[in-house]
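Final report, results section. Input specification for complex C-07:
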Amino acid sequence: MEKNDFLRELENILELEPNTLKGGESLEETGVWDSLGVVSFMAFADEKLGLVLQADKISASKTIEDLIGLLGDRISG
Amino acid sequence: MAMQPDDRAARVVNGTRIVGIASALPVAVEPVAAYEDRFGAEAVGKISSSTGVRSRHVAGTICTSDLCAAAAEQLLDGCSVQADTIDTIIFVTQTPDYVLPATACILQHRLGVPVSAAAFDVNLGCSGYVYGLWLAASLISGGGARRVLLLVGDTINRVVSSEDRSVALLFGDAGTATLLEADEQAEPLLFVLGTDGSGEKNLIVPHGGFRHRADNASFLKIERESGNKRSESDLYMNGAEIFSFTLARVPAMVSAVMKAAKASMDDVDGFVFHQANRFMMKHLAKRMSIPEEKLVVGLEHYGNTSSASIPLALCTEMAGRLRTSSSRLLLAGFGVGYSWAGCIASLDKLTIPEITYVQGPAI
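Structure output:
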């Protein structure tokens, strides 16, 4: 998945307006990152990328780049 | 009818029939909207639309055994079975009457089951109903029992902190009774079970057992993650870890059961998962390509009722069908432990009495 597509997916997961994420943000800045966000992100990785992520690693993430890091080579660009 | 499992993990039990299922709920209903003052309307709305829970029946001072006893009486009556023909009581719960004695013993006396009965408790939650079926059926199949009363339920609200958002809006209380008996003509029941105790701390009531006896400090509510407040005698749930465990284990369990039964999606009439929350069930169904109409979801008015959620959903969502026809169902429980259990069962014209409502003791 291209990084831009991932950002659109993340907006969808977090119920943000489309095309608002640039990729450099901290998760706190989005104002909507909470435990439901963690679970929705996990569901996305499982369904769209076939990855079962560890909850503690997602919870420890501070930025969108950290989340992308968890998805490894499934995200390009 | 003997059956060769296709998978070494599967356990096949022959010669046992499920006769009927009954459920009992506390009369008191608590809508999740009651928490808007405490957590804010927006947060409550967001949680509720994800979990799918709008209200729950809450036990107050009612015990799980009170609910299960009411369900059992209703069931025996509905099946026209006398209590003195029951030879075994299995009580599955995480909320017994006492640390000791076993609540199953109290229920033997209360229900008028003969003193020749075997009666024991099993401490399991979300996986507990399917585990109970496996235990009861295995006892019957092996000749160790003829007619088993399987009582399964929980009153988790009694260990939930009303100031902990991660659990306060989710759980409901319920008790159920299922009657199983020997029947050589019965279709085989097929089980896949699993356990991973490395998850012990992610769904736990830390104090009150013998690792940490309850003392005064056990009841002090302390502020934790995200402003949630609870004591060490309250339930702690790490929802994200539980979700991760579910993704890792449940689809594999479901496909193992289906493979062992040589069943395709078309061969299964309904998938009844532990009613953990709607988001999780919908995700699992999507992930396993289960057609939406075959996924049984019944927690809007009951919440997550822990060990009772599968039999309760059978009673509230499927009673009409189960009473009149034959259905092949896949049941799957998973959670606290971690512990998981899946089963394919053919249910034929079950006795399912109307839901019984239990009034709490006058205060």
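The two ends of chain B are 54 Å apart (CA to CA). Chain B is about 30% helix and 25% strand. This concludes the modelling results for the funded period.
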